[in-house]
Predict the 3D structure of the following.
Amino acid sequence: MHNAAFAALGLDWAYVPLPVPPERVGEAVRGLAALGFAGANITVPHKQAVIPFLDELTPIARAVGAVNTLVVRPDGSLLGDNTDGAGFMADLWAHGVRVCGSMGVSEYKPSALPHSHTPTRALVLGAGGAARAVVYALAEAGARVAVANRTQDRAQALCQALGAALEATAETQSAQRDSECLSDLRVSAVRPSSRLSAHPFPDALPELAAEAELIVNTTSLGLHEGDPLPWDAALPFRPGQVVYDLIYNRPTALLALARSQGATAIDGLGMLAHQGARAFELWTGVAAPAEVMLEAIREP
Ligand code: ATR
């Protein structure tokens, strides 16, 4: 998708895959500047392991505890960022879902989009690495986020860590929030750390499902044919609810169920494109052609 974007904009850049064994991740990123790279994406299993080798982290990368994008700065130093949360919010935005305070990538003109959903109560299924980026982004935008995970301790630890990080950035956040959103934001008075709550999966689903306006699957359930639903099939979805599944490699049973019951169902392909679009902008300083990138990764 990056090469398609470079071609569309006539940029003489190239994006190349570089498999790196875990024990050599430090050597690899330390060589990027000398090799003339402007940046890199970091993927599984290096997203956390790369951190000690970087010169600086963005507040989001620090809060999430994982890096997916590196920027090589002019002096050769390395900045670690995490664009997964921004990619998720941008894709919600592109689908007409506007969590208060959220922003799309530059090519989306907010006024031109019919934002039919403005959820303030989200339910996130799972508490792994992908959940951290999503939960942070949603709570930072002002939503109340319930995190339901099979291992409840993990959900609790996530809420505690991200709550503390959100408190630390709360001042900047409220300064950035746009005034139109503030006026109809039902949760603006709630402290950032109090917007997060941890729950057992699946036991808490009946109680949480009723009030959730946005439900996000970040678990690995659905990645493989025959996986159980990350949901209780006896709990109906409803029109007006938005169900987002981060899985993008195959159509999931969760989204099929949501769609059949009248909810808005969104897969993770757009998040993949938009996290890439954000990285593209960090490296090139040029607005990313997000639609071109999305088209490039869509199945033919
Ligand atoms: P990632 O970094 O992609 O989020 P991860 O850290 O391995 O991957 O997290 C996977 C998530 O899927 C976790 O929330 C995991 O729950 P646990 O924390 O209890 O392990 C969840 N998950 C995986 N298999 C599951 C299953 N069979 N039932 C419920 N949740 C499951």
User: Anything to note?
Assistant: The longest strand covers residues 144-149. The pocket of 2'-monophosphoadenosine-5'-diphosphate is lined by residues 126-131, 149-151, 154, 201, 218-221 (CB under 6 Å). The chain is about 35% helix and 15% strand.
